Each structure stands twice: as structure tokens, then as C-alpha cells.
What we know:
By secondary structure, this protein is an all-alpha fold. Helix content is 76%, strand content 0%. It is built from eight helices and no strands. It has helices at residues 3-19, 23-39, 44-68, 73-95, 100-109, 115-144, 154-177, 196-215. Helix 6 crosses helix 7. The model has no long low-confidence stretch (mean pLDDT 82).
Amino acid sequence: MNPAIRLMLVFIIALEISLVANLSLNIAVIIGSLAILFWKHLHLKTFLFISLLALLPALGIFLSQLYYGGSHGFYRGIILFSRLYAYVFLGLSFSLTTSPIKLAHALEQNLHVPAKFIYGILAALNLLPQLRYEIKVIRANGNMRGKTLHPWQPTLYFKALILAINWSNNLSLAMQSQGFVENEPRTHFSNPIVTKLDWSLSLIILGAVQCIIIFCH
């Protein structure tokens, strides 16, 4: 499925989950998302790690509803518990199965998102490994001066922000030197298309969601 259409589909389903208190819908989204993830060969360790990571906030929400939600607290707690996991696995089913590059091309060409915004996101993603390396260098320099920079100290991130600003200027100059001009027609190496199958699958999935909302309470 086209990445841009898939992103819109995920947003619509997430919106419906947030507006409708339907346990069956939450469970269906969780099962469907897990089916996609395991079909794409999600590692069991990754699944267990994410599940345990989301367990603490989910339990906190459930217990707060159980103790302070009155006579319907248990049911509301179960709904909110399952809703959180539905959000988590729905997001994972998109993020772990979608290439950022392909998504960027689809957003630019199919949804007509401004190219400057798209290339800014791609630059940020590609600079993340370098940013991690530079943070390690900053901490090492601090250790050499006898000053330990902990991850929670703002000084560490302020120095990293200065580096990022310098990188942004260099990137802007590099793009201009390569002939990038905003709002001008450009050719593309990759041309994602939206097919009838994409629309059909989207309508089928959204139709199934509406049926669950209407017939399953």
C-alpha cells in the first residue's frame, strides 16, 4: 500500500479509537496490527520489550479507573488499557514496516507536502546517527576536563543544539549548490503512485472498523 495512504489510514483509525469507547474495536486493532507485525517478521524480543514498556502506563490508567472510576471503573479501565496498546501496536505496524524515504516521496508527490518540509525531515533522520556520535564526543571532552555531563543536564543538549544549527546552515548551502529551488518543478528518482488497490483496501479496512463500532459494543 502507498505509504501516504497508509499514514492517513492509521491517523483515521487512531482518531476513531480515541473518540469511541469500544473494547471490541481496540482488540481488533491490536490483533490486526500484531498480524501485520509478525507477517513482517517482527522479532519476539522487540515485541516483548515494547509490550513491557507500555505495561506500566497501561496499568496506571487501569488502576486509576478501577479505584476512582465508580461502578463502571473496571470496564472503563479495561477500555483505556486496551486503547493504549492499540495505539502502540498501530503505530508500530506503520513505523516498523514503512521506509522513511518512501514515505517522504509519497508525502511530497501524492499529498503535495512542501518539498522544503520533506527534505528537512529527511535531513533530521539522516543526521541522528551523527548527532549521537557528537553527543558522545561532547561527553568525552567534558570528562577530559573533569566535568561529567549527565543525560539529564541541559548543557549537553545545548551544545548539541549549536552543532545542529551549524549543520542546518551547511545543509541549506549544499541543497542550493545542487540546484534546489523551492516551489519549482523538479524531477524525481522515485515516483510512488496511488493505485485502485490502495483505495479499495483502505475502504475495506475503514468499513470493517465502522461495522465493529456499530455492531460490537
